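ARCHIVE CARD
CATEGORY: sequence design from structure
SOURCE FIELD: tokenized fold
FIELD CONTENT:
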């Protein structure tokens, strides 16, 4: 019998993160997981209550493809006030089933077979496979520790070819916590414009910025008309399981993405949309409290890593630290596997996020302070044993 699996599905590599998540499930005892990238806080009650109320009132039907009109309007106003970027709520916003769906429909809306897509490296594990699924050719754009994991103009110029169509970037970055501030974005804007590139900017960690205010890529002069902004509610409001993201883009691109969304998903979860309305109306204080706690944890954890001999830059966004483990003499995979088995601390090898991640491990500090302190103690004991 012939194989019914498509060539595309067969050729995609499994997620490098999944291997370690599966290994954690086999462990017994007190495992401290620094591997899962999601908030450890509950969704603020007022947000959850809004969803419950919508269900109790029977508001469980499909919404319009773009999303609830009230939600589109609130987001448009919020984005303008927060980032200085104005999107038309009727034609330039689509609510999606998580940022993951937003990424999928964005890629399929703009990538033709053979188009090259520059993808920041290291990066979230979905980016390169999504390019491949859209028929494009992913090309890594290295972001190095010595540059604080930013895109530099020199590196961008070096990696652009005549086939390059899209720059896929994510700042604040998963897995490094690196950010691109306003000056950093201005430094690459002319290159993007001169080479007629489109930017897909995943900014889902935008509100988890600690030392400076986040700058939206679309706010930079000349980039609005060539930027697709992806964002969502998962990280800022502790709503990962609610699966609600959004795509914002100029009308022509948004219309193309909407056609794919109509067939692939129809509409984002209705109860989650009502929850998001409440998040935009009243969730700011709860969000700020969570961010303040992440900042304290970041400072505690990164200092601890450096104190035990693992060099780690201070991440300015997201909730990840990305220490170098090269001083141990182990590969990142060996380090992660042995740390889990010998000290029951779960981290993710940096190589799971791309070539530029080799020699590092991703650690998530969305863990309460006592557990973080204990994790540092165990990691230090492991390093000392080598």
């Amino acid at each position: 019998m012939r194989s019914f699996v498509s060539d595309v599905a067969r050729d995609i590599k499994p997620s490098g993160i999944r291997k370690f998540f599966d290994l954690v499930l086999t462990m017994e005892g007190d495992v401290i997981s620094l591997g899962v990238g999601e908030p450890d806080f509950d969704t603020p009650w007022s947000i959850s209550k809004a969803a419950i109320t919508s269900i109790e009132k029977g508001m469980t039907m499909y919404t319009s493809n773009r999303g609830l009109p009230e939600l589109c309007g609130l987001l448009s106003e919020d984005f303008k006030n927060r980032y200085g970027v104005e999107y038309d709520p009727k034609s330039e916003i689509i609510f999606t089933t998580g940022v993951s769906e937003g990424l999928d429909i964005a890629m399929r809306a703009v990538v033709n077979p053979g188009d090259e897509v520059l993808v920041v490296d290291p990066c979230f594990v979905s980016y390169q496979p999504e390019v491949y699924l859209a028929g494009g050719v992913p090309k890594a754009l290295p972001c190095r520790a010595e540059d604080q994991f930013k895109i530099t103009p020199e590196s961008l110029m070096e990696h652009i070819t005549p086939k390059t169509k899209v720059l896929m970037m994510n700042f604040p970055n998963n897995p490094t916590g690196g950010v691109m501030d306003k000056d950093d974005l201005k430094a690459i804007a002319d290159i993007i414009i001169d080479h007629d590139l489109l930017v897909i900017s995943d900014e889902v960690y935008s509100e988890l910025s600690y030392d400076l205010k986040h700058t939206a890529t679309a706010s930079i002069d000349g980039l609005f008309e060539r930027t697709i902004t992806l964002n969502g509610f998962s990280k800022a409001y502790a709503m990962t399981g609610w699966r609600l993201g959004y795509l914002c883009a100029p009308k022509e691109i948004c219309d193309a993405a909407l056609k794919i969304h109509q067939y692939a998903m129809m509409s984002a979860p209705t109860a989650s949309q009502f929850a998001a309305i409440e998040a935009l109306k009243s969730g700011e204080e709860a969000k700020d409290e969570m961010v303040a706690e992440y900042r304290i944890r970041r400072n505690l954890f990164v200092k601890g890593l450096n104190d035990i001999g693992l060099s780690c830059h201070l991440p300015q966004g997201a909730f990840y630290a990305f220490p170098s483990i090269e001083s141990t003499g182990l590969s990142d995979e060996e380090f992660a596997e042995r740390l889990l088995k010998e000290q029951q601390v779960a981290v993710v090898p940096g190589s799971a996020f791309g070539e530029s991640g080799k020699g590092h491990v991703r650690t998530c500090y969305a863990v309460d302070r006592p557990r973080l302190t204990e994790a540092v103690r165990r990691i230090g004991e492991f390093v000392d044993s080598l």
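CARD ANNOTATION: The domain at 45-282 is CATH 3.40.640.10 (Aspartate Aminotransferase; domain 2). The two ends are 51 Å apart (CA to CA).
SHELF: design records, drawer C
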